[in-house]
From TrEMBL:
Protein name listed in UniProt: protein-serine/threonine phosphatase
Keywords: Hydrolase, Manganese, Metal-binding
Domain of life: Eukaryota
CC terms in the record's Gene Ontology section: cytoplasm; nucleus
UniProt entry tagged with the keyword Lyase: no
Record has Metal-binding as a keyword: yes
EC number of this enzyme: 3.1.3.16
Serine/threonine specific protein phosphatases domain span: 31-209
GO molecular-function term, one example from the UniProt record: metal ion binding
SUPFAM superfamilies: Metallo-dependent phosphatases
Family annotation (Pfam families): STPPase_N
Length: 225
Protein backbone atom coordinates (compact mmCIF):
# COMPACT_ATOMS: atom_id res chain seq x y z
CA UNK A 1 0.00 0.00 0.00
CA UNK A 2 1.25 3.49 -0.85
CA UNK A 3 2.07 5.69 2.14
CA UNK A 4 0.96 9.30 2.59
CA UNK A 5 3.48 11.79 1.25
CA UNK A 6 3.54 15.57 0.96
CA UNK A 7 2.45 16.89 -2.42
CA UNK A 8 5.41 17.82 -4.58
CA UNK A 9 6.45 21.45 -4.81
CA UNK A 10 4.94 23.44 -7.69
CA UNK A 11 8.40 24.26 -9.05
CA UNK A 12 9.35 20.57 -9.07
CA UNK A 13 6.08 19.62 -10.76
CA UNK A 14 6.47 22.31 -13.43
CA UNK A 15 9.99 21.05 -14.17
CA UNK A 16 8.70 17.50 -14.60
CA UNK A 17 5.96 18.73 -16.94
CA UNK A 18 8.51 20.71 -18.96
CA UNK A 19 10.73 17.64 -19.43
CA UNK A 20 7.76 15.51 -20.46
CA UNK A 21 6.48 18.09 -22.95
CA UNK A 22 9.97 18.74 -24.37
CA UNK A 23 10.54 15.06 -25.10
CA UNK A 24 11.26 13.98 -28.65
CA UNK A 25 9.48 11.26 -30.58
CA UNK A 26 10.88 7.83 -29.74
CA UNK A 27 13.15 9.20 -26.98
CA UNK A 28 12.58 8.53 -23.30
CA UNK A 29 11.91 11.56 -21.11
CA UNK A 30 14.55 12.20 -18.47
CA UNK A 31 12.63 11.20 -15.35
CA UNK A 32 14.15 9.35 -12.42
CA UNK A 33 12.53 6.32 -10.81
CA UNK A 34 12.00 8.40 -7.65
CA UNK A 35 10.18 11.10 -9.63
CA UNK A 36 7.92 8.57 -11.33
CA UNK A 37 7.12 6.96 -7.99
CA UNK A 38 6.28 10.33 -6.44
CA UNK A 39 4.00 11.21 -9.36
CA UNK A 40 2.11 7.94 -8.81
CA UNK A 41 1.88 8.39 -5.03
CA UNK A 42 0.68 12.00 -5.23
CA UNK A 43 -1.91 11.21 -7.92
CA UNK A 44 -3.08 8.17 -5.94
CA UNK A 45 -3.67 10.36 -2.88
CA UNK A 46 -5.68 12.86 -4.91
CA UNK A 47 -7.89 10.17 -6.48
CA UNK A 48 -8.73 8.70 -3.08
CA UNK A 49 -9.56 12.15 -1.67
CA UNK A 50 -12.17 12.78 -4.40
CA UNK A 51 -15.59 11.16 -4.97
CA UNK A 52 -15.92 8.47 -7.63
CA UNK A 53 -18.14 10.72 -9.76
CA UNK A 54 -17.16 14.36 -10.28
CA UNK A 55 -19.52 17.13 -11.39
CA UNK A 56 -17.60 19.36 -13.83
CA UNK A 57 -18.28 22.66 -15.57
CA UNK A 58 -17.41 23.47 -19.18
CA UNK A 59 -15.04 24.19 -20.84
CA UNK A 60 -13.69 20.64 -20.79
CA UNK A 61 -11.28 18.72 -23.04
CA UNK A 62 -11.97 14.98 -23.15
CA UNK A 63 -9.18 12.48 -23.80
CA UNK A 64 -10.26 8.94 -24.66
CA UNK A 65 -8.29 5.72 -24.27
CA UNK A 66 -4.69 6.71 -23.55
CA UNK A 67 -3.24 3.26 -22.78
CA UNK A 68 -0.96 1.11 -24.94
CA UNK A 69 1.00 4.11 -26.22
CA UNK A 70 3.95 2.07 -27.41
CA UNK A 71 7.40 3.45 -26.68
CA UNK A 72 5.96 6.57 -25.00
CA UNK A 73 3.42 4.81 -22.76
CA UNK A 74 5.29 5.71 -19.57
CA UNK A 75 5.66 9.34 -20.61
CA UNK A 76 1.97 9.52 -21.55
CA UNK A 77 0.63 8.31 -18.20
CA UNK A 78 3.20 10.36 -16.26
CA UNK A 79 2.11 13.49 -18.15
CA UNK A 80 -1.57 12.84 -17.43
CA UNK A 81 -0.91 12.14 -13.75
CA UNK A 82 1.25 15.26 -13.48
CA UNK A 83 -1.62 17.30 -14.92
CA UNK A 84 -3.91 15.65 -12.38
CA UNK A 85 -1.61 16.71 -9.53
CA UNK A 86 -1.52 20.26 -10.90
CA UNK A 87 -5.31 20.30 -11.00
CA UNK A 88 -5.93 20.24 -14.75
CA UNK A 89 -7.27 16.73 -15.17
CA UNK A 90 -10.02 14.31 -14.22
CA UNK A 91 -9.20 10.71 -15.13
CA UNK A 92 -11.86 8.14 -15.82
CA UNK A 93 -12.71 5.16 -17.99
CA UNK A 94 -16.26 3.98 -18.36
CA UNK A 95 -19.37 3.40 -20.38
CA UNK A 96 -23.04 3.31 -19.38
CA UNK A 97 -23.94 5.12 -16.16
CA UNK A 98 -26.10 3.97 -13.21
CA UNK A 99 -27.14 6.54 -10.61
CA UNK A 100 -24.51 8.91 -9.25
CA UNK A 101 -25.12 7.75 -5.68
CA UNK A 102 -24.50 4.12 -6.66
CA UNK A 103 -21.20 4.96 -8.36
CA UNK A 104 -20.09 7.14 -5.46
CA UNK A 105 -20.80 4.22 -3.14
CA UNK A 106 -18.20 1.96 -4.78
CA UNK A 107 -15.29 1.31 -2.37
CA UNK A 108 -11.76 2.43 -3.22
CA UNK A 109 -9.12 1.15 -3.50
CA UNK A 110 -10.42 -2.20 -4.68
CA UNK A 111 -9.62 -5.06 -7.04
CA UNK A 112 -11.70 -5.30 -10.22
CA UNK A 113 -14.27 -8.08 -9.64
CA UNK A 114 -15.37 -10.68 -12.19
CA UNK A 115 -18.94 -9.33 -12.28
CA UNK A 116 -21.13 -6.57 -10.94
CA UNK A 117 -21.43 -2.81 -11.34
CA UNK A 118 -17.73 -1.89 -11.32
CA UNK A 119 -16.94 -4.68 -13.80
CA UNK A 120 -19.68 -3.46 -16.18
CA UNK A 121 -18.66 0.20 -15.87
CA UNK A 122 -15.19 -0.74 -17.07
CA UNK A 123 -15.90 -3.28 -19.79
CA UNK A 124 -19.43 -2.97 -21.26
CA UNK A 125 -19.65 -2.09 -24.99
CA UNK A 126 -22.16 -0.33 -27.24
CA UNK A 127 -23.69 -2.41 -30.07
CA UNK A 128 -26.00 -0.72 -32.64
CA UNK A 129 -27.45 -4.10 -33.72
CA UNK A 130 -29.20 -5.00 -30.47
CA UNK A 131 -32.06 -3.79 -28.30
CA UNK A 132 -31.47 -3.75 -24.58
CA UNK A 133 -28.63 -5.90 -23.27
CA UNK A 134 -26.76 -8.93 -24.66
CA UNK A 135 -23.73 -11.07 -23.84
CA UNK A 136 -20.46 -9.66 -25.15
CA UNK A 137 -18.70 -11.44 -28.00
CA UNK A 138 -15.43 -10.52 -26.25
CA UNK A 139 -16.44 -12.66 -23.30
CA UNK A 140 -16.30 -9.80 -20.78
CA UNK A 141 -19.25 -7.92 -19.30
CA UNK A 142 -22.12 -7.20 -21.73
CA UNK A 143 -23.23 -5.14 -24.73
CA UNK A 144 -25.96 -2.49 -24.75
CA UNK A 145 -28.10 -1.08 -27.55
CA UNK A 146 -29.14 2.45 -28.59
CA UNK A 147 -32.34 2.28 -26.53
CA UNK A 148 -30.24 1.91 -23.37
CA UNK A 149 -28.35 5.07 -24.26
CA UNK A 150 -31.66 6.89 -24.72
CA UNK A 151 -32.28 6.28 -21.02
CA UNK A 152 -28.77 6.87 -19.67
CA UNK A 153 -26.50 9.18 -21.68
CA UNK A 154 -22.78 8.94 -21.10
CA UNK A 155 -19.57 7.98 -22.95
CA UNK A 156 -17.93 4.67 -23.72
CA UNK A 157 -14.48 3.56 -24.92
CA UNK A 158 -13.31 1.37 -27.79
CA UNK A 159 -11.01 1.49 -30.81
CA UNK A 160 -12.51 3.63 -33.59
CA UNK A 161 -10.67 4.28 -36.84
CA UNK A 162 -11.38 8.01 -37.01
CA UNK A 163 -10.66 8.79 -33.34
CA UNK A 164 -14.30 9.53 -32.54
CA UNK A 165 -17.62 8.00 -33.51
CA UNK A 166 -21.24 8.88 -32.78
CA UNK A 167 -23.80 6.33 -31.58
CA UNK A 168 -27.54 6.27 -30.85
CA UNK A 169 -28.47 9.40 -32.86
CA UNK A 170 -25.50 11.39 -31.50
CA UNK A 171 -26.53 10.85 -27.88
CA UNK A 172 -23.24 9.05 -27.21
CA UNK A 173 -19.77 9.48 -28.67
CA UNK A 174 -16.68 7.31 -28.49
CA UNK A 175 -13.45 9.25 -27.90
CA UNK A 176 -10.30 7.22 -28.61
CA UNK A 177 -7.05 9.15 -28.15
CA UNK A 178 -4.38 6.52 -28.86
CA UNK A 179 -3.34 6.69 -32.55
CA UNK A 180 -1.94 3.53 -34.14
CA UNK A 181 -3.31 1.52 -31.21
CA UNK A 182 -0.89 -1.26 -30.22
CA UNK A 183 0.84 -0.67 -33.58
CA UNK A 184 -1.91 -2.82 -35.13
CA UNK A 185 -4.95 -0.71 -36.05
CA UNK A 186 -3.51 2.22 -38.07
CA UNK A 187 -6.19 4.43 -36.52
CA UNK A 188 -6.02 8.13 -35.71
CA UNK A 189 -6.76 9.45 -32.23
CA UNK A 190 -8.98 12.33 -31.19
CA UNK A 191 -9.66 14.80 -28.40
CA UNK A 192 -13.05 16.40 -27.83
CA UNK A 193 -13.29 19.97 -26.54
CA UNK A 194 -16.45 21.42 -24.98
CA UNK A 195 -16.59 25.20 -24.67
CA UNK A 196 -18.55 27.34 -22.19
CA UNK A 197 -21.65 27.16 -24.42
CA UNK A 198 -21.42 23.32 -24.56
CA UNK A 199 -20.41 23.42 -28.23
CA UNK A 200 -18.23 20.41 -29.11
CA UNK A 201 -15.28 20.20 -31.48
CA UNK A 202 -12.65 17.55 -32.19
CA UNK A 203 -8.89 17.56 -32.69
CA UNK A 204 -7.37 14.70 -34.71
CA UNK A 205 -4.12 13.03 -33.57
CA UNK A 206 -2.28 11.27 -36.40
CA UNK A 207 0.11 8.35 -35.75
CA UNK A 208 3.67 9.54 -35.10
CA UNK A 209 5.01 8.02 -38.33
CA UNK A 210 2.65 10.18 -40.40
CA UNK A 211 2.71 13.36 -38.29
CA UNK A 212 3.91 16.56 -39.90
CA UNK A 213 5.12 19.67 -38.13
CA UNK A 214 1.78 21.40 -38.77
CA UNK A 215 -0.67 21.97 -35.89
CA UNK A 216 -3.35 19.44 -35.09
CA UNK A 217 -6.20 19.34 -37.56
CA UNK A 218 -9.29 20.86 -35.93
CA UNK A 219 -12.57 19.90 -37.63
CA UNK A 220 -15.46 22.38 -37.52
CA UNK A 221 -17.65 22.45 -34.44
CA UNK A 222 -20.39 19.86 -34.64
CA UNK A 223 -23.12 21.01 -32.29
CA UNK A 224 -24.10 21.21 -28.66
CA UNK A 225 -24.66 18.62 -25.98
Amino acid sequence: MMTMEAMMDEVVLDDILRRLLDGKEGKQAKLSEAEIRRICVNAHQIFLSQPNLLHLRAPIRICGDYGDRGKQSLETICLLLAYKIRGDLTLGYGKYSPTASTINGLPRPTDIPDNGLLYDLLWSDADPRIVGWADSARGVSCNFGPNVVAMIWNSFAGVVEDGYEFFAKRRLVTIFSAPNYRAEFDNVGALMSIDESLVCSFEILKPASSCSKTPLKKPPKIGTI
